[in-house]
Amino acid sequence: MRFDVITLFPDMFSALTESGVSRRALQSGLYQIKTWNPRTFTTDRHKTVDDRPYGGGPGMVMMYQPLKDTLDAIAADGGVKPHVVYLSPQGQPLTQAKVEQLMGHERVTLLCGRYEGVDERLIESSVDEEISIGDFVVSGGELPAMMLMDAMVRLIPGALGHNQSAEQDSFSDGLLDCPHYTRPEEVDGMKVPAVLLEGNHAKIDAWRQAQKQARTEQRRPDILSGKTE
């Protein structure tokens, strides 16, 4: 899998490439990442990538041409047409199901907006889908892009230490995860549930499934009702 990331701040992605699971997976050759700065594709001496919005209003808007030229360069590099995702508060909510769907693409391009966003004509002509990580606003698309990439990398076979780790994550089966415990058996008067100490794996599996159901009903009933809030 290959990620192409359009960003004004490529150094931010060192948080992904130099830490944890995503670093190990990159070093193992399980995925590739290439960052593209649209300032490279400007023609003026100031390397301008934004301008004032038509109609007035606060802030600046990322210009069409530098981003379009960047996308054209990405498409020409590698031979496989990328699936273009724009990280945007106006996009569809990111879910585990969406992450799994995106895994079907050999190559994904992530467009990280800044300022007030990007020229709508670029979205209409060149973006395949918009994705939001929640109903709130951050300073740019870099952090959302890294969250999406990390979620996808976890699903690449071999990325995690245990083959079942991703399968048992929250949302993998439509439910929240069950509680987890480790040693010692008792801390500050709180004990590990006895069923986890008995070694009966059938009973443990049933307990965990019941805990997942109960936790989801309590904390995220919207998941069970098929709603997204």
UniProtKB/TrEMBL annotation:
Gene3D superfamilies listed in its UniProt record: 3.40.1280.10, tRNA(m1g37)methyltransferase, domain 2
Molecular function as annotated in GO: tRNA (guanine(37)-N1)-methyltransferase activity
Known role: Specifically methylates guanosine-37 in various tRNAs.
Gene responsible for this protein: trmD
Catalytic reaction(s) noted: guanosine(37) in tRNA + S-adenosyl-L-methionine = N(1)-methylguanosine(37) in tRNA + S-adenosyl-L-homocysteine + H(+)
Subunit text: Homodimer.
UniProt similarity note: Belongs to the RNA methyltransferase TrmD family.
PANTHER family reported for this sequence: TRNA (GUANINE-N(1)-)-METHYLTRANSFERASE
Biased composition (Basic and acidic residues): 214-229
Pfam families noted in UniProt: tRNA_m1G_MT
Its EC number(s): 2.1.1.228
Residues the entry annotates as binding S-adenosyl-L-methionine: G113, I133, G134, D135, F136, V137, V138
Gene Ontology biological-process annotations: tRNA N1-guanine methylation
Protein location: Cytoplasm
Origin species: Thiomicrorhabdus sediminis
Domain of life: Bacteria
Keyword set includes S-adenosyl-L-methionine: yes
Region (Disordered): 209-229
Domain tRNA methyltransferase TRMD/TRM10-type: 1-224
Keywords in alphabetical order: Cytoplasm, Methyltransferase, S-adenosyl-L-methionine, Transferase, tRNA processing
Entry-linked InterPro entries: Alpha/beta_knot_MTases (IPR029028), tRNA_m1G_MeTrfase_C_sf (IPR023148), tRNA_m1G_MeTrfase_TrmD (IPR002649), tRNA_m1G_MTases_N (IPR029026), tRNA_MeTrfase_TRMD/TRM10 (IPR016009)
GO cellular component: cytosol
Protein name: tRNA (guanine-N(1)-)-methyltransferase
Predominant cellular place of this UniProt entry's protein: cytoplasm
The keyword Transferase appears for this protein: yes
